[in-house]
Amino acid sequence: MASPMLLLSATVVLGAVHLISGYSFNNCIEDPYSNGQSFKCIHRKEKNMSALINDLPPSAINLTVCINPLWHIPNKSFVHLPNLQHLRIDDNHLKIIDQYAFQNLHQLKSLNLSFNDISDLNPSLFKDLHNLTFLSLTKNKLKQLPEGIFSTVLNLDTLIMRQNFLTHFSGIAESVSHLMNLRILDLCFNSLTSLSHSNASLPKSLTTLYLCRNNLFTLGCEHSFLRFIQLLDLSYNSRLPTMAFQGVDLRHINYLRLRSTSVKVVEFLNISNVHAGHVDFSGTGLKNDTLLMELCKQLKKKVKEITYLRLSSNGIENLTYYTLSSCPKIKGTLDLSHNQLKKISLNFLNNQTNIKSFSAEHNHLTSLSSCKTQHYFPNLEELSYRYNRILSVGSHAFYCTRNIKMLKLNINTISFLHRNALKGLERLEMLRLDNNLLTDLFNNTFEDNFNLQILNLRNNRISVIFNGTFLNLRNLTTLDLGGNKITHFEQSGLNGLKSLSKFYLDGNNLKQIDTSLYRVFQDTLTVLDLQSNQIRFLTKDIGSPFMNLSKLSDLKLDGQRPHGLTILPRTLFRGLHSLKSLYLTNNNIIYLTPDAFDDLTDLHFLSLDNCCVGVTQLQPGVFKNLRNLRKLIVENMGIQNFTKEVFGNLTQLHTLQLNRNVMEQIQVDALESLPKLHYLDIRNIPLSCTCKNSMLQNWTIHNPNVQVVYLYNLPCPHDAKLKLYNFDTKVCYIDLGEYLFFSTSVVIFLFTVTPLLYVKLYWKMKYSYYVFRSWFSEQWRRLREEEENCKYDAFISYNSSDEQWVMDQLLPNLEGNGSSFKLCLHHRDFELGRDIVDNIVSAVYSSRKTICVVSRDFLRSEWCSLEIQLASYRLFDEHQDVLLLVFLEPITERQVSSYHRMRKVMLKKTYLQWPGSGCTDPTQAQALFWNQLRRAMRTGSRLETEENDKSKGCVTESKEHFETHTSDENYYLLP
């Protein structure tokens, strides 16, 4: 329960930040390190563009809106984002874009509208985009461009309109003719049939034109129409004939693709002015020696040497010694990939000794045999046999290419690599042997490769690393052994790796970390990947296997098979003072010791998501030394407690991903102890919408520095319609303890006082009830009217036991014997059928006086008490002199003291006592009694004090005398 002081402080803080808007967005996420400039709105359910982005700040520069059900962009959708420079709205369902949809985007440089359903564009759509340099309309349904569509985007550099239904090139040419900065125009995958045009010309700046996969059957353009084009792609226009190039100026072409057209390249070279060495001959049907030799002769007529000879995808099955003998000298790359070569001997190159790069990827090669007897190619630096079916590599397989620096043998089926296969490759720097079937490496396999820097052996079947395997690889910096079946290294298996910086061992069968193996590269290793092995610890106390890896900055231990690490030894990371990134994901760790990360003082990134079993109780101080941590991922850990004691020391933390945990409460003081926090993800956490999260609610919606991911969409667990950010917290700011204290005190007081009040004020309360009831029924108004015309001179209140005296004495002396008083009596004047209380009230207020005939029986009567209460009310509260007391018998002070109202009347008013037999002269005393009573009834004021002669047998007493002693001889008393 919050204390009053804490609640007061919260109120002050809330008041201070009331004007600051919350740092979260309905449908977008700010990139954590973009400083309010980059946002991604991906995979949301919102169909309205305005609702999707209306809460983004004007500082936004980069905006990505992808994979949403958007179909319409209304006018002025981005006016609140005037600084936007890069906008992606791809892979949605856009059909309609209003005329002024991009109004006010004067700073926009790139716009991507790819993969939508746009069929029409408004001519004024890009009116405000004066700085636009990149526009992509890929994969839409455009059939034509409206006139003047690009009239205002004069800075456009790249225009991509591939995968549409464009049919008329003339309209396209007219639309781009004035774009003097346009360099790249991509029109592939359309329905163009020709390049015919009216008077329009392509801008001189246009150097790259992609026209692949159209239906071109002719170029149909003027001689100089393509004179400035440098890259022209006409591939996959199967109907395009050779004669289409007759008279077309192609002198500036640096790269021309004619793949899968009807062009006969030899004839094309005869009629065209294109530079022969700039034509890509891939996919042009040159599938045998005859055609290749004819091409070479034609090329030699045109040029003496060429940089690139691209012959891929021609269906070539065999190459002979004479195939390329007639070709000009190749000083760069020969590409024979995507053919049907089954075997290869570099002798076919014959005199092509200047070649630098040779590729035979995607063929059907099954083996590489020795080439010691073949020509030597001293200038060859890159050799690639990727994507073949090579099973074996023989001895000295690359001896004729001893100067190569890059060798790619990956993605084959190599199961046998001769121990001398790589002999002579002393200049080799990168070797790719990944994705093969190698099982063994020998101690002399790499003995000549002492300049090797990168060795990739990933995804083979190697199970053991024998002694001396890498002994000569003193310059190796990257070794990738991931995805093998390695169970252990022999004692000297890693010797020689004195420069190793990155070591990948993920996806193997290692069961322990052998500290002795890493002594060779302990001063050089920066990256060690051990994820997805079988490492497991049986005790919390072991020696640290990483103690001497002083420069290690990246360590991956995530996903150990089959059950994870389960136990994380308290000293496992000892000595890793330089570690920057640590991955422990998917490890089913039972318990994290408080000192597990104590030595990781320079750690910047820690990933613990899915690393623990069930519910996790993080121990206080577990992150106490991670003061340099920037990003912490603790997703799906079963965390129950997010407290300052656990997370309070992360003073440099920028990004915190807490989603998919089980805590019902997040303590705000823990969040406030993270001063550099900028990004907080608490999705899929069952945070209760109760008072214990009221402070969290206030913190999230009023904190200007921390982005809470999708805050406004976080639901309450008990009701998805309610949201965490706006559940009702009014009751939370009431100090319930104080209210409960006062309410309990009142209840106790009432239980204590009520019985006393009941005894003392029973009749007053009862009388008040009846008065209230009379007021409620407007009885008072009627009684007031009756009082002005009183029906009776006096209402006689008496007990039934005294009725005889009333009938024999009172009634004859006041209504008879010449007296003119009219009295109201119960039995005679009460209205039949009427409530008795109403009759009493009516009698009191219909009479000028009320005469109470007091006896001991009268005092015990409830109805008599009610009647004297009503009369005394008029006496004390309404100040009406209406009450007369007549005592029929002597009553002591002790007997009267129980009747507070009665005693109060006796102290204030004159009262009469009926003369008893004790008087000297009863007849004279009774006569005086009746005279005094009649006199009191006639006047509206108090009776005056009179003294009577003692000789008459009567004694005059004052009120003070009555209070001290009462004589039985008193037959009346005056004030």
Automatic annotation (TrEMBL):
Residues 1-22 form the signal peptide. It is a single-pass type I membrane protein. Pfam families: LRR_8 (PF13855), TIR (PF01582). It is found in: Membrane. Belongs to the Toll-like receptor family. It comes from the Eukaryota. Its main location: membrane. One of its GO terms (biological process) is signal transduction. The chain crosses the membrane at residues 739-759. One of its GO terms (molecular function) is signaling receptor activity. The keyword Repeat applies. The lineage of its organism: Eukaryota, Metazoa, Chordata, Craniata, Vertebrata. InterPro entries: Leu-rich_rpt, Leu-rich_rpt_typical-subtyp, LRR_dom_sf, TIR_dom, Toll_tir_struct_dom_sf. This is Toll-like receptor 21. GO terms for cellular component: plasma membrane. Keywords: Glycoprotein, Immunity, Inflammatory response, Innate immunity, Leucine-rich repeat, Membrane, Receptor, Repeat, Signal, Transmembrane, Transmembrane helix. Residues 941-959 have a biased composition (Basic and acidic residues). The keyword Membrane applies. Residues 940-959 are annotated as: Disordered. Residues 790-937 form the TIR domain.
